[in-house]
Design brief:
The chain is built from 14 helices and 17 strands. By secondary structure, it is an alpha/beta fold. It folds into 2 domains: 6-30 and 291-406, Aspartate Aminotransferase, domain 1 (Alpha-Beta Complex); 42-281, Type I PLP-dependent aspartate aminotransferase-like (Major domain) (Aspartate Aminotransferase, domain 2), CATH 3.40.640.10. Strands 4-12-11-10-9-5-6 form a 7-stranded mixed beta sheet, sandwiched between helices. It has a 4-stranded antiparallel beta sheet with strand order 13-14-17-16. It is globular and about 65 Å long. It starts with 5 loop residues before the first helix and ends with a helix. It binds pyridoxal-5'-phosphate. Residues 92-94, 121, 123-124, 170, 174, 199, 201-202, 222, 232, 366 line the site of pyridoxal-5'-phosphate.
């Protein structure tokens, strides 16, 4: 069965009706956060207006809350290829990473080592650096190649020692779109007795996550990057979850993902995250299961994104004064592309695009080290992100706008 057309997908998003300067708005900041379909907002509204309660009490709205949160865990389990009891929620990926790093480090000794990469968003770097400072750990940093936008694999292999306890690695760069082989990275980590912590925040919006195939120990992502509300979620491998020494309150639950959750979370956002998974599955209506539908949806989104990023790559590079960064479309990458235009700051470029109804973000995107290494610490890059609702015509509008500014 076919996956819905981009026009049919756009009809599910009320925000697609918005105009700016009399032009339809093109939302090109998926890597910063995607738009939300009506079904996700409806699910959150339904929860808040009809089922709102705290968990684990013996009255109907509380029981309904428990059931709805269990459904959300099952949906995220299908999304990640995990069991529902391995799914935890948190405020966002950053908060989950601060929390989980602190828990993991309780089992480590001064002098133990963690590996981070230059290509990562700082949410998968700074929590490790800070816990290292607190616990006396050594941090090793794997560089990336500025010409290819890819991790230096030999340096990654060389970073492991007998003291390595964990590799923190991103599945895809939110600045350059580079996809890193986290399956091979997890194999390397396990071969030296270390854990593998994967930041899939950018990756999960573009490719089907399969935590068993990757064989990682923890994987984190953020539903607001894949058509859901502002919330974070983590897969923690069951055996690891059971032995994690998590900072927690004595009376708090220890079952499944609740073991690493703190306080009362945003139930409506958890429900909305589950609805976002159902939205993605609904794009492939003929599939036999939710997981099968997600696989079809992501295969189609990958194919559409590849066409768009290839067009952007070829056309922007042909404009005098434009420098495009990251791997070419023939290498593993997402449909996120960043560039600069000589003689214009990235903010000027962003404002020029806005004047034509094109909403895109600029700066360092918290992938600060990537931007520094590329020599743009002062001003950053302009980033175009293609999402499920991005049309080929919007991509042509971006190219025409940059051509006009460069002329
Ligand atoms: C690759 C990547 N990792 C981590 C984060 C941080 O996620 P959160 O905002 O959920 O803390 C982001 C956010 O942009 C990201 O793109």
């Amino acid at each position: 069965m076919a996956v819905l057309s981009v026009e049919a997908i756009r009809a599910l998003f009320p925000s697609m009706q918005r105009t700016h300067n009399g032009l339809p708005v093109a939302y090109l900041d998926g890597p910063g956060g995607t738009q939300v379909p009506a079904s996700v907002a409806d699910a959150m509204r339904d929860y808040l207006l009809h089922h709102n309660a705290n968990t684990h009490w013996a009255y109907p709205t509380s029981e309904e809350t428990d059931a709805m949160l269990a459904s959300a865990r099952a949906a995220l389990g299908d999304f990640l290829g995990a069991a529902p009891d391995e799914v935890a929620f948190g405020a966002n990926m950053t908060t989950l990473t601060f929390h989980l790093s602190r828990a993991l480090a309780r089992a480590w000794q001064p002098g133990d080592e963690v590996i981070v990469t230059e290509l990562d968003h700082h949410a998968n770097v700074d929590p490790w650096r800070q816990v290292a400072r607190d616990a006396g750990l050594v941090v090793r940093t794997v560089p990336f190649d500025v010409t290819t936008g890819e991790l230096q694999w030999a340096a990654l292999e060389a970073a492991f020692t007998s003291r390595t306890r964990l590799l923190a690695i991103g599945a895809a760069s939110n600045a350059l779109g580079t996809i890193s082989d986290v399956t091979a990275a997890a194999r390397l980590a396990h071969a030296s007795g270390a854990l593998c912590y994967v930041d899939a925040v950018h990756f999960a919006a573009h490719e089907l996550v399969d935590v068993r195939a990757i064989d990682c120990d923890i994987l984190v992502c953020s539903p607001y990057k894949f058509y859901g509300p502002h919330v974070g979620t983590a897969f923690v491998r069951r055996e690891l979850l059971a032995r994690l020494d998590v900072p927690k309150l004595a009376p708090a639950g220890n079952e499944g993902g609740e073991r690493v959750e703190t306080g009362t979370l945003s139930h409506e956002a958890m429900v909305g995250a589950g609805a976002a998974v159902d939205f993605l599955a609904s794009l492939a209506p003929g599939a036999t299961s939710r997981r099968a539908a997600l696989a079809e949806t992501f295969a189609a989104l990958h194919a559409r994104g590849l066409v768009q990023v290839t067009r952007l790559w070829d056309s922007l590079r042909a404009i005098p004064g434009v420098t495009v960064y990251g791997p070419p479309p023939t290498r593993p990458r997402t449909s996120t592309l960043s560039f600069v235009l000589r003689g214009h700051t990235s903010t000027e470029l962003a404002r020029h695009l806005v004047s034509r109804g094109l909403f895109a973000s600029n700066g360092d995107f918290y992938a600060q080290t990537v931007i520094e290494r590329l020599g743009h610490a002062d001003d950053g890059l302009l980033r175009i992100g293609c999402s499920a609702y991005t049309t080929d015509e919007e991509i042509e509008r971006v190219i025409a706008a940059v051509q006009a500014l460069a002329a």
